[in-house]
């Protein structure tokens, strides 16, 4: 389970799910209970997944899901044991089913379970400032501090030796040990996922969490969105400068350094020992290799292999960039 916090309201009859995505007239030979909805990699038997882009062909080939929302042009990439469910818009359909399984993941209203820390079990274990609020299902390790006006909303686990600054909001997070989260950060809120509609845009449910591994630092004013169908992960010993935005499902490898005002769009995966200069932007669904250096102000719109150094827009080999801009 990618999120230990959201309640799975399943299982549901397969026929009931088909009605939601308007496939109730399709001819399927059996009707079973579908246990859960997951991504291609983590899904298992009697679960449903989705496949919408050739970028994920390898994962589609290996999925263990029993059912997969997809397009007719992609159905042959699925294993024989996985039943393709052909729809007009895969992401729209998967959002409807995700909302069915996890209705509490759709909205991000304020946490009305939060209490002043003085009224909780944490009051004698945590050093804290004024007006600190703590929600339900929160655990905090030893030797931690929380600054003024911060809110640790429901469903957060914080390890030992962690420092949370002032005016910070955290929810749906697993924060490991020796973490510093500086002032004005927002971590674990709903990502920017919706389907445009003239009358009422449809919000995409985000059932993932944010995982921040040991020895990381998150700079002032940074925002890290929780995952949609997988988790957003900040690897060990990674340092983020101020005013950085990490979108849903992004994975950043260990020992990476990211300078101020960088934006990383959803579902991009960064390797280990990555260095990114200030104000660079990385498009979504990209793979950035290990030991990559990206110059400040660059725009990355395609995958970057290991041990590369790039700069410019679109980002290109650093030496080529210098030659063209002498």
Describe this protein's structure.
- By secondary structure, the protein is mostly beta strands.
- It has an eleven-stranded mixed β-sheet. A ten-stranded mixed β-sheet has the order 7-9-12-15-18-23-26-29-32-35, with no helix packed on it.
- A hairpin with a 6-residue loop joins strand 19 and strand 20.
**Oligomeric assembly:** single chain
The number of helices is: 4
Please state how the strands of the largest beta sheet are arranged side by side: 8-11-14-17-22-25-28-31-34-36-37
- The total of beta strands comes to 37
Calculate the mean pLDDT score and round it: 93
**Helix-strand makeup class:** mainly beta
| Separation, N- and C-terminal Cα atoms | 52 Å
Low-confidence runs? none
Specify the biggest β-sheet.
11 strands, mixed
Backbone CA Rg: 21 Å
Q: Beta-strand percentage?
A: 25-35%
Could you estimate the helical fraction of the residues in percent? under 10%
Q: Report the principal-axis shape.
A: globular
